[in-house]
Amino acid sequence: MTISCYGAPSHQHIKDSIMSSMSSFSSELSNLPKKPIPGQYGLPFIGAIKDRWDYFYNEGKDEFFENRRRKYHSTVFRTNMPPGPFISPDSKVVCLLDAVSFPILFDMSKVEKLNVLDGTYHPSWSFTGGYRVCAYLDPSEPKHTSLKSYFMSIIAARHDNFIPLFQQCLYDLFFELESQITTKKHSSFNSLSDKMSFNYVFRLFCDKNPNETKVGSNGANLFDKWLLCQLAPLGTLGILPKFLNLLEDLLLHTFLLPFFLVKSDYYKLYDTFYKSASSILDEAENLGIKRDEACHNLVFLAGFNAYGGMKATFPMLIKWVGLAGEKLHRQLANEIRTVVKAEGGVTISSLEKMSLTKSVVYEALRIEPPVPFQYGRAKEDIVIQSHDAAFEIKKGEMIFGYQPFATKDPKIFEKPEQFVANRFVGEGERLLKYVYWSNGRQTENPTAENKQCPGKDLVVLLCRVMLVEFFLRYDTFRIEARTSTFGSIVTFKSITPKATTT
Asked: Are the C-beta atoms of residues 369 and 409 closer than 8 Å to each other?
């Protein structure tokens, strides 16, 4: 990993580069040669199994895509995506790896998002109470509009609570973090962050502490098991000796894990939300949504979208800031403390004035998008364009985008593999249109008619608040980090409290 705090290009260079590229893009793309999509799927069944083994065991995720990009000399190609047989009815995809072709996956007039949340398969609807919840619906389905409008309204109604409630939850996290470092000389940030995230989400939607319910302090664990059973086909344990790969592949990637493994856990969560979120469910009934359907959707929103998103995002953010080192920490602390003092507190207005803090959050989302995969099925014959060529995708073909490659496109971003903290400061903000992390561009907004995350702006806000509250309290910190199948694992090794002045 290469990290730079000062290594961003000059603002004038960024401006000139962006304006030049934008003005030439349209004319260049319209004149691109039309080529057949390279790549192959291999023999039926065997080809999908081979690609699955390459993806999980022989090559690894990033190398799987990079090797094929080099082999075909193209950022658009055909391949199979896991899990394949016997879970996926069809594993064939057209893969997109560049920033120009990728946004076709956000165009609801060209692609269908029916049951593609998890890719080429979907878990049993038993995991969501027998309902196809909003995340699996295409915007063309009337129920999608009503459910997503409902989600957006309940999130908006709680906007006054976003910052103060998160500050309370962060206070508990920091207390436990300090206590563990003092007693054990290290602290697992992920477990603390997961606990804090569940508490925040539950209190935001239910207006009570989960410890006052039968879920108690176990909410994060219950959601983790529920998530794991649905997403297991997309991951690998990564800790087994190679001779056990066949056993792991059989257990995780060949058959779906059954709902009964987590049935009691799920319904404990469902019953708790049903009793604790009565005002939200009342609102759903007023909108014509059945109460039990609304509750299953609420559990999914809280567990898969909100908690699951925070579970991936917060450790990722702390990892990149931690690895950047003390120089960036001093910069952030200075900006944050100066603005908070001048503004008289942590508010939406004060957060907007912290240009470096904002840039750091965007850069973290760029370099390691919390959700790396996007899928959509072509509604019609369409022509897509990469930087170098145009390609025709036939109606019904599955399109897959690997987001970390698109957001590290070297033809868009200088030093794309580096964490450049001030990349999006000043004129660099123009590059935000190429930051894809929320099933849409950072510069676009979720609506009831698209599939962009309804809590997109809340995620950005909470990431900023986390950095602000952290550097109001601490000067610097040191971590160790590693990457697992489903995100970053962060361990705090030391933390330096804010120096007192006399």
From this structure: no
Q: Is the pLDDT of residue 5 over 50?
A: no
Contact residues for 368 (Cβ-Cβ < 8 A; gap 6+): 316, 319, 320, 404, 488
> How open is the CA angle 281-282-284, to the nearest 5 degrees?
60
467, with CB counted inside 10 A (0-12, 13-18, 19+), is: buried
Q: Which residue in 461, 416, 433, 354 sits closest to 102, CA to CA?
A: 433
Q: Provide the 3-class DSSP secondary structure of residue 485.
A: coil
Phi, psi of 496 (to 5 degrees): -110, 115
Percent of the chain that is helix, strand, coil (3-state, to 5): 55, 15, 30
Strand partners, 441: 436
Q: What is the pLDDT of residues 292-308, one digit of tens each?
A: 999 999 999 999 999 99
Instruction: For residue 249, give the nearest of 49, 387, 1, 443 by alpha carbon.
Output: 49
Within a 13 Å sphere around the CA of 339, how many CA atoms are in the beta-carbon half?
24
Q: How far apart are the first and last CA of the chain?
A: 39
The pTM of this model reads 0.93
Share of the chain above pLDDT 90, in %: 91
DSSP single-letter state for residue 135: G
Cβ-based burial of 288 (10 A; exposed 0-12, middle 13-18, buried ≥19): exposed
Q: Is 385 helix (H, G, I), strand (E, B) or coil?
A: strand
Q: By the 8 A CB rule, do 357 and 336 touch?
A: yes
In 3D space, the residue among 175, 172, 224, 176 whose CA is nearest the CA of residue 199 turns out to be 172
What's the pLDDT score for residue 28?
52
Could you give the dihedral angle defined by the CA atoms of residues 54, 311, 446 and 166, in that order, rounded to the nearest 10 degrees? -170
> Within 10 A of 159 (CB to CB), how many other CB atoms are there?
12
Instruction: List domains and CATH numbers for the chain.
Output: 2-31+113-369+407-497 (1.10.630.10)
Taken as a whole, the chain contains a residue count of: 502
Residue 110 has pLDDT above 90, yes or no: yes
95 annotated as a binding-site residue: no
Residue 137, classed as helix, strand or coil, is coil
Give the 3-state secondary structure of 403-439.
HHHHCCCCCCCCCCCEEECCCCCHHHHHHHHHCECCC
What type of residue is 33? P
CB-based contacts of 67, cutoff 8 Å, min separation 6 = 59
User: CA–CA separation, 388 vs 29, rounded Å?
Assistant: 8
